[in-house]
Design goal:
The complex is a heterodimer. By secondary structure, chain A is α+β, with helices and mostly antiparallel strands. Chain A is 18% helix and 40% strand. Chain B is mainly α. Classes of the chains: A alpha+beta, B mainly alpha.
Amino acid sequence: MRLKITEQQSNDLKHKDVCTAVGWSSNNELYSCGDDKTVWRWNLNGEPLAKVCDSDSFITDIHWLPVPTKKAANTQNDVFVLGGADGSFSLISKSGRIDKIVKDAHLGAVVCVRWNHEGTALVTGGEDGVLKIWSRNGQLRSTLATTGKCIYSATWGPPTVIEQNILFTSGKDLIIKPLHATSSAKQMQWKAHDGIVLKVDWNILSKFIVSCGEDGKYKVWDSHGRNLYSSAPFDYSITSVSWSPDGETFAVGSFNTLKICDKTGWAYTRKSTNTGSILNISWTSDGTQLAAAGGNGEVCFAQLVERQLEWRNLVVSINENLKMKVHDILGDTSEEIEFRDKIIKWKLGFGHLVVATASQCWIYDVQSWNSPHQFDVKDNVSLILLSKKIFLMMDNSSGIQVYNYDGKLLSNPKFPGLRTEFLNSNSVSVSNDMICIIDKGEAEGKAVRLFNLTSSKESAEVIVHNMDIMEVALSQFGPLSERKLAFIDRNRDMYICRVGTGSKRPDTFKLATMVDSAKWNDHTDMLVAVCDGHFTAWYYPGIVYVDRDLLPYTRTTHDESEVGKRSQIIDFFGTRCNVRRWDGSVVTMSVSPHPLILYELVDKKNWEACLRLCRFVKDRSMWSCLVGMAIKNKEIETAETALAALEEVDKVQYMLKVKSIPSVEGRNAAMALYMRNIDEAESILLQAGLMYRAIKMHIKLYNWTRALELAVKNKNSTYSHIDTVVWYRRKYLEGINRQENDPVFLQYESLSVDWVVMKEKIRNEKEKEKQKNKR
Amino acid sequence: MWQPHESSLVTFDEDHNLRIFDAEKFKQSQLLHKKSVEFTDKIGQFEDLMKDVMSVLKVKGERIENEKLKAIGLRNRVKGEEEIRRSNVRDYQTLISEKHIELERHAAELESLSKIEQEQKKMIESLSSSEPPESHN
């Protein structure tokens, strides 16, 4: 990623004095203001359009009222707020008409002004060290804080349903203060820099804070004030920082310097400018361009160029904003594609390239670059996610939309409280038949909503967790019944959960702790994650729902090559996995190719070949995977062989016993029981009419109450098994030397059990099952 | 009757021209007239000369002034050069350190990739040396 800078000639500066602040309007025009008491309007290319208005006082800050969508921008009254050095602030419309001036808002100058994300409230900080909250119309709502020191910068935190925090600077400290004083929310204050903190910004998507100060450092913090990154000191004090709208990068401005950094702190690129100290930076809403206010009066425009994506043998790069180059490394061929307008978001994978420009979306097949599908988009696309057959696109006007690769709209899932401006690639996931979204509305991020795309009705399954869910990822492999969701919560614990089964109670299982990032493979069920700085792979996470004892065998950890903490997995295609380390370097990790082959063979139901492969590899992990897959597919023979190879004698014995069960349903139920699905096993048996087997199963599980329940329910049929249950129960109690005290069983206290009759009944039942199966 | 006046004695000279002044006075005034004309001519000449001199001096002066400014400018530049060089050095140093960091990143990337290459080579070797694995067709 590089910056392309457009600067004005130094003899043609529009601001005759310091340019103090800049802000992009909703239709992508830049408004700049300065100490020459004027506001100027510029277009995207950095050409001055006109002077908007004059002010009575020196202007210290500008901020546009946020508008959620392009459409709203056209209908709503577009307003920005100016802070003045005489202690006033003014609300001014786009045309330059002054809507309202609030005089004497602060003693001394108003230093910073900031709208909240909904555009319903305004915070101002002044030289007098007072922080005030104002309504949309400029009515004073409250005085939030009074500190002794000048407030150089203030910003609103990520809004949640219950609380809204405001972050502001006070000398060398940063302070987070809740807007409404409740018992649960507390003010937080910490020393952030060795010099005065000059600017602070809080991103609503990544929830990270970035601050800079006179000590020449910029620092990244999480929302609890923990330091994640601290830069080496600059030669000059750093005068401005600003998050890009997607929260992935931030811009840093210092004396004659503009820098773009990743959210983990390392720098993508640095560029020298002729601006003097950069006092303020503003990003366009699509995050492709930014403007900086120079201390010498210059307004500097910068574009992000030379972005690049890789997938298998393809490298796609944008050199100029409208031109894209596709390079095939294998054939060493290139293709150039030109677009009519600016490329905003793009994604490569699953054999497709999806490019969203300012007005259109183009879908390319990597096989044929000449015939793209295309449709119009209404707003700036904020997210594109791909899967094998479908892809997801998100913008603030139309919400979340699911398309197939022919450009046909498949679904547009909605739920109350869905706000796309708070979602990013971590909070949404897509697979062939399902999408999932973290519910940040009513559930406050503690639940995941799942939308099944195969069913016509938009039924939403909800998985509720006891803590904030930070990241979600859906598995890509297999049919809907194989679909699994991996999610990471606030404690960085990773859970796995079966979805799409329609069961009310999702069976979540904690897979790992201290997980920084996780990713599913593109065409198998492999899952990789960075756990505690180690690269870890699960070859068959589904083993959790087959045989949890084997889970440790199917997991491998690369011990010798530590990727380091806070690494992010970028992609995981085939056996190759790209991981971005905290210092910005992309390292490639690989997983063993054998599981991939195994998946392929299982997909073709070639169990013979699976066994041969495992014998060749001679690896416990492979055998364990095979056990899982075989049992899942009810392949008892294969499972038995694999378990034998693992030397799991007890399980082999069980498999042998299963094999001896005469009926198919009985075997299926026994396999379900092996997978610990008691309910499923019971329903299989009951559906097949194998009542005795069901009762016996519960007896064996010491599930006396349910056994008796079934027996009682069935007492009017030819054979009632109440006596059997009671007999086994008595025998059991005798064995452990206890008295019956269960009231349900106490009522059968007097029942006499004839052992001979009972045995006869059981024999009859078994005979019946055999007969039935023969027919 | 016209009375001749003493002070305005009108006479005739030898050429029979009518004279108001007497001959002596006339001669002197004529001389005076000639001398005056000569004098104004000379003054005029002097003035032109002075103008020339002045313009020449002015040009010279300007040139001197320019040179002086140039010299001052040069002197400042020399003084500033030190500062510029220092800041350049600083700039280049930051550039170098940035490139170093980038190099490190690429080195790490290369290292991981070569490790994978090795792994794959080993895999190929093991596959080709031992019994070939069953064909998965």
